[in-house]
Amino acid sequence: MDLYKILKELNIKYDEIEHEEIYTIEEALKIECSLDGIGSKNLFLKDKKGHYYVYVLHENKRADLKKLAEYLNVSKLSFCNDDELYNILGLTKGGVTPLGIINDKDNLVVVIFDKELVNKKILCHPNVVTKTMTLDYKDLIKIIENEKHQYIVY
Question: Phi and psi (nearest 5°) for 54?
Fold first, then answer.
C-alpha cells in the first residue's frame, strides 16, 4: 500500500523534506531540518514468543528494554534481524518507522509510543531513508487504527 495514498484518504496533513540517506540518530542530527517536531528513535523488537513491536521514543532518550519487557509482561525483548525487518515491515536496517506497519499485512506488529510523544508532532521516515516527515501524534494513531494494528503508550 502506498503511504501517500493512505495519508490522502485519511485527510492527514504532513510536512516533509528530502535529504541524503540517514540511518542513525547521529546522522539525522546533522541534517538541516526546518520541520516542526520531535525527532524519534524507532526500534524494531521482538519477544521470545514471536510478538513484534516498533518502539517509538524521543531521539535523545535511552531505551530501557528490561523495563519495557516488564511493562509488556514478557520475559525478554531483543532487536529483530534485518530479514524480519524486511519481511514484516518492508524496511531496511536504519529505516525503522511506525509507518512501516502499512506493509505488515498479518498484523504482527504492535506500536509502542513513549508517553513523552503523546499529543506532539513527531518526525519519522515515510518508509524511505531519504525523507523525513512530521506528523501529529493523533494522525499516527489514525494510521495505526486504519491499518487495524494495536498501539500502546508506555
Answer: -110, 115
The answer to whether 99 and 3 have CB atoms below 8 angstroms apart is yes
35-53 pLDDT, tens per residue? 899 999 999 999 999 999 9
**Residues in Cβ contact with 117 at an 8 Å cutoff, skipping those fewer than 6 apart:** 38, 40, 56, 57, 58, 137
Answer yes or no: are the C-beta atoms of 109 and 101 closer than 8 Å: yes
Which three three-digit cell numbers place residue 68?
519495557
**Residue 146, CB half-sphere, CA atoms under 13 Å: how many?**
19
Per-residue cell: 77:
525483548
**Dist CA 132 CA 152 (whole Å):** 23
Torsion of CA 13, 18, 21, 26, to 10 degrees: -70
Q: pTM to 2 decimals? A: 0.93
Which DSSP string corresponds to the chain? --HHHHHHHTT---EEEE-S---SHHHHHHS-----SEEEEEEEEEETTS-EEEEEEETTSPP-HHHHHHHHT-S-EEEPPHHHIIIIIS--TT---GGGGGG-TT--EEEEE-GGGTTSEEEE-SSSTTEEEEEEHHHHHHHHHHTT-EEEE-
Please, are residues 63 and 55 in contact by the beta-carbon 8 Å criterion?
yes
